[in-house]
Design brief:
YefM-like fold; 28% helix; elongated; single chain; alpha+beta; 106 residues; 4 helices
């Protein structure tokens, strides 16, 4: 069987890096990453670790995000657990109550 490189199946250095990456991880420069972001995202989705390097020094690893549950908050889960001590807490204080509050009586 002919190698993919000889068969012309790999189009660029990027494809070669994906196929035969060092340390089982693709390393790519910032400039190449900027130009090939959709391809890098597809590689990460396929399980390929991608490391973006600046001047040969690893800076960022692209990793697959954990899939969320897709569930939002459940409203009403605290029903019956919240107690309101003063049902009129939201009403404005009277002048007398304000004076008492400022004197430290509340």
């Amino acid at each position: 069987m002919e190698s993919p490189i000889n068969a012309g199946l790999l189009r660029s250095k990027f494809d070669i890096a994906m196929k035969d990456g060092y340390d089982k991880s693709m390393k790519i420069s910032v400039a190449d990453a900027k130009n090939r972001l959709p391809e890098l995202i597809r590689a990460v989705e396929a399980g390929e670790p991608v490391t973006i390097c600046r001047r040969g020094v690893p800076v960022v690893d692209l990793v697959l995000t954990k899939v969320g549950t897709g569930k939002g908050p459940k409203f009403g889960t605290l029903k019956g657990r919240i107690t309101i001590n003063d049902p009129d807490w939201w009403k404005p204080m009277s002048d007398e109550q304000v004076e008492d509050f400022l004197k430290g009586k509340y």
